[in-house]
């Protein structure tokens, strides 16, 4: 039977990895100190960032596998469950990790900005692949945090630790930007597939059955998380995925309006709008005229 571990506190995760708890709300983990273990399911109520060093089990989130190889970073936020699947009975963990409780950052600038780090919502095939130089920079960030953990806790500890974590996250944003560029060919094929899906959507019955398409819908069709998909489209095209979808709706609507045999209400329903007045409002917001005004003008 698969083992299930629940980690709600730093001390619980430190004990699991054979580590001393230096601070009740944050820890730097050296996984080589942990005892050999087999595959398991882990539920986290903590923020966790794993830097993998060697092959030691496949990470699975939901039904999807992380693109998780040697020298990669994976981000886990509170409430997520990770499966570690291993093909042998036992393996020796290796690598490093940063683990912290949300209470650590309350009242800090990081608490306000952490929701902006969208990589915490990335999933399958979206781990961060590091160059050797980037990997060393990550380890340096971890070392600075660990140095602070070894100091006596005082009124400055929380701010300094949170600031170092925020610095680390800012580096990760830079690394992800680099990865979007170095995976340019793959990303361009995703953009092309997105455009293909957009074109086929409105020539199908999906607007009638699903309604207006969403970013989450296309992300799902491309087996990507909505955040990763949105970031990729923005970096590749300069437009958000939502803008792309809205532009397609307007373009399709304009073509349909030229068909005078259809009423504006019929066009609204064909596009997936639940109510015609919502279509009229949406169209005027983006074009400057109502659908009827646009039809008369043209």
UniProtKB/TrEMBL annotation:
Source superkingdom: Bacteria
Keywords from the named record: DNA-binding, Transcription, Transcription regulation
Entry annotated with the keyword Chloroplast:
no
Name the Gene3D superfamilies on file. Answer: Homeodomain-like (1.10.10.60)
Which residue numbers delimit the HTH araC/xylS-type domain?
192-297
Pfam families xref list: HTH_18
Could you cite one Gene Ontology molecular function of this protein? sequence-specific DNA binding
Signal peptide per UniProt: none
**PROSITE patterns given in the database record:** HTH_ARAC_FAMILY_2
Which InterPro entries does this entry report, sorted A to Z? Homeodomain-like_sf, HTH_AraC, Tscrpt_reg_AraC-type_HTH
What name does UniProt use for this protein? Answer: AraC family transcriptional regulator
Q: Which organism is it from?
A: Flavobacterium hercynium
Q: What is the lineage of its organism?
A: Bacteria, Pseudomonadati, Bacteroidota, Flavobacteriia, Flavobacteriales
């Amino acid at each position: 039977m698969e083992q299930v571990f629940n980690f709600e506190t730093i001390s619980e995760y430190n004990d699991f990895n054979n580590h001393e708890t230096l601070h009740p709300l944050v820890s730097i983990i050296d996984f080589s100190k942990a005892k050999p273990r087999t595959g398991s399911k882990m539920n986290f109520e903590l923020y966790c960032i794993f830097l993998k060093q060697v092959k030691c089990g496949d990470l699975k989130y939901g039904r999807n596998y992380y693109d998780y190889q040697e020298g990669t970073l994976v981000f886990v936020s509170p409430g997520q469950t990770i499966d570690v699947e291993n093909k042998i009975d036992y393996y020796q963990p290796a690598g490093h990790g940063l683990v912290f409780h949300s209470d650590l950052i309350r009242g800090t600038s990081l608490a306000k900005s952490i929701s902006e780090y969208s990589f915490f919502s990335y999933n399958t095939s979206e781990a961060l692949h590091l160059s050797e130089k980037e990997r060393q920079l990550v380890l340096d960030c971890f070392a600075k945090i660990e140095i602070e953990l070894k100091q006596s806790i005082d009124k400055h500890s929380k701010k300094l630790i949170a600031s170092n974590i925020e610095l680390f996250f800012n580096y990760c944003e830079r690394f992800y930007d680099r990865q979007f560029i170095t995976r340019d060919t793959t990303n361009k094929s995703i953009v092309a597939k997105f455009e293909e899906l957009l074109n086929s959507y409105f020539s199908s019955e999906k607007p009638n059955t699903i309604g207006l398409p969403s970013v989450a819908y296309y992300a799902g069709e491309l087996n990507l998380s909505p955040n990763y998909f949105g970031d990729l489209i923005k970096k590749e095209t300069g437009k958000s995925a939502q803008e792309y979808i809205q532009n397609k709706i307007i373009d399709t609507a304009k073509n349909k309006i030229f068909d005078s045999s259809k009423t504006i209400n019929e066009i609204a329903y064909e596009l997936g709008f639940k109510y015609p007045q919502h279509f009229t409002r949406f169209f005027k917001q983006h074009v400057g005229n109502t659908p009827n005004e646009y039809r008369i003008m043209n």
